[in-house]
Amino acid sequence: MEYAALNNGVKMPMEGFGVFQVPDGNVTEQAVVDAIDAGYRLIDTAAAYKNEESVGRAIARKMANGTVRREDLFITTKLWIQDAGYEAAKAAFEVSRQKLGLDYIDLYLIHQPFGDYYGAWRAMEELYKAGKIRAIGVSNFYPHVLADLCLHANVIPAVNQVELHPFFQQEDALKVMNEFGVIPEAWGPFAEGKHGIFKHPVLCDIAEKYHKTAAQVILRWNVQRGVVVIPKSVHKSRMVENINIWDFVLSEEDMQVIAKLDIGHSEIVNHFDPEFVKMICGWKIHE
To answer: Would the CA dihedral through 7, 103, 83, 42 be positive or negative?
Structure first.
């Protein structure tokens, strides 16, 4: 495993395990147990995923049987729009921390750039300075929004988790993140299966050269761009496949071939669509 050095010196694994859309309960708990057994140490969840408690139980199990120590793990969760704001963010963080059963969170992200995220950021800065969070960051912050926050915040975000995969490569966004020292992290690194990504002829041809799978090539391509990846699967064999990307390096020629797959826009979400914004801002995750 390789590590990214965040702008505060904290080391973050370049590959982790995500639990978006994994059902709460035994499915999530077992998936996280299997992921830790497979070697993952970064686990990514969110208040909006409604499975923090299951993630916490899995972590407790693996710590109790001696598989991992708390300091071996890098746990990420996120603040939902409903709790944007100074006081609300502090309360929501504490709810997430308790659900996870942890004394501290390694990385806490603002999940979406809507609502009073400036008030939330001030609260997160205080929690960070108090040692309750090792690093703070954002998610889905497009370049102009990220630049605005970086220019006005006391603590520069350590991470920006955005959609990044061969069909939506966001090179301009990566340049802005690099300018401000923000590490990019990819959600949806497999494009949610679009374009037949696992059987795509270009990716499969490259994979064959390295005796790897298309999935492994996709993940390796992103980490070679300096992007942290958090693939999701509930199948242990796929988890093992996904983490087995550290024994090969894509050539510059192959990196450039993959670069040509970019279509320049998302086919999953559109944060610039007012109807999408109204929908997502109206989504309540608690009373």
So the answer is: positive
For residue 104, give the CATH number of its domain: 3.20.20.100
* CA separation for the pair 147, 118 (Å, rounded): 13
pLDDT digits (tens, 9 = 90+) for 121-133: 999 999 999 999 9
Burial class of 154 by CB neighbour count within 10 A (0 to 12, 13 to 18, 19+): exposed
Domain ranges, residue 236 = 3-281
Distances (CA, A) of 115 to 65, 110, 118, 180, 219: 42, 11, 8, 23, 32
Please indicate whether residue 49 is annotated as part of the active site.
yes
Q: Average pLDDT of 260-281? A: 96
Among the listed residues 3, 40, 49, 210, the single catalytic one is: 49
Residue 136 φ/ψ region, left for φ over 0, alpha for ψ in the -120 to 50 degree band, beta for the rest: beta
What's CA 263's distance to the chain center, in Å?
22
Q: Distance (Å, rounded) from C-alpha 61 to C-alpha 184?
A: 30
Residue at 74 is within a domain: yes
DSSP string, 68-94: --GGG-EEEEEE-GGG-SHHHHHHHHH
Give the three-class secondary structure for 145: helix
The one-character DSSP state at 182 is P
